[in-house]
Amino acid sequence: MPTSTELSNARHHHSDASTHASHNPPNALAQNAEPGPSPDQSGNPDDDDSAGTDGNTATHARTVAAPTVRRPTIADGAHMWRIASDSGELDVNTPYAYALLARDFHDTCRVATVADEAVGFVTGYRRPEAPTTLFVWQIAVEPAFRGRNIGGLLLDALVRDLVDIVAVETTVTQTNDSSRRLFGKFADRHDARMSESPLFAAGHFPDAHEAEPLLTISGLAH
């Protein structure tokens, strides 16, 4: 999502920029570093990245373990920042911002762990004027754990827990095909409708940035 969003919401929203810009929370849009074997400017070819191994037995054991999804704690803030920084795809917020999200918005954020190690996260918040709408800000998964649908698991677990949420919003650039697939498949799984409308134009940003149209997924079936 900038998310988006992760929402939804990487640079090129949920996108994959090769440079990491540090932003304070009010200025960072939703972005998602969605997993995929070969991330392009907009994420991966799959919903989730392909997990790679280097032949090391311990590494291989970690990549095949089943992920667990839970609410983040303040201690997870540093891990979320690291995952965002390592993604090579997100507009990276400050470590302080991730600590605040983990403390103040833990109900609308989730962390995925494997063997007690944080390997992915999604951040989001409820729209103040529409409390039954969830805005997905960022989704990111460690490169070594991509290709396992962890991004989809994070979204599904979050919406499953938020039983009163009837719609999900995120922003995704036109070139971010992987994020669009991620949210399209999420909408299909939940028998929901996905629509697109203008939101942030390129001129709204002080740097070189693509427009961030709004994706709205409504009519969620829990």
Features:
24% strand; Acyl_CoA_acyltransferase; single chain; L-2,4-diaminobutyric acid acetyltransferase; alpha+beta; 8 strands; acyltransferase; Aminopeptidase; GNAT_dom
What name does CATH use for the topology?
A: Aminopeptidase
Mean pLDDT: 79
Principal-axis shape: globular
Major sheet attributes: 8 strands, mixed
β-strand percent reads 15-25%
Give the helix level as a range of percent: 10-25%
User: What's the total number of strands?
Assistant: 8
Total number of distinct structural domains: 1
Q: What oligomeric state do these chains adopt?
A: single chain
Q: What is the count of helical runs?
A: 5
| Proper CATH architecture | 3-Layer(aba) Sandwich
Pairing-aware structural class of the strands and helices? Answer: alpha+beta
What does this structure look like?
Residues 1-71 are annotated as: Disordered. Pfam families: Acetyltransf_1. One of its GO terms (molecular function) is diaminobutyrate acetyltransferase activity. Keywords: Acyltransferase, Transferase. The chain has one domain: Aminopeptidase (3-Layer(aba) Sandwich), CATH 3.40.630.30. 25% of the residues lie in helices and 24% in strands. The protein is built from five helices and eight strands; from the N terminus they run E-H-E-H-H-E-E-E-H-E-H-E-E. The chain has helices spanning 57-64, 76-87, 95-104, 150-161, 177-189, and strands at residues 31-33, 68-70, 110-114, 117-127, 130-141, 167-171, 193-200, 212-218. Strands 1, 2, 3, 4, 5, 6, 7 and 8 form an eight-stranded mixed beta sheet that branches. Residues 1-28 and 35-61 have low confidence and may be disordered.
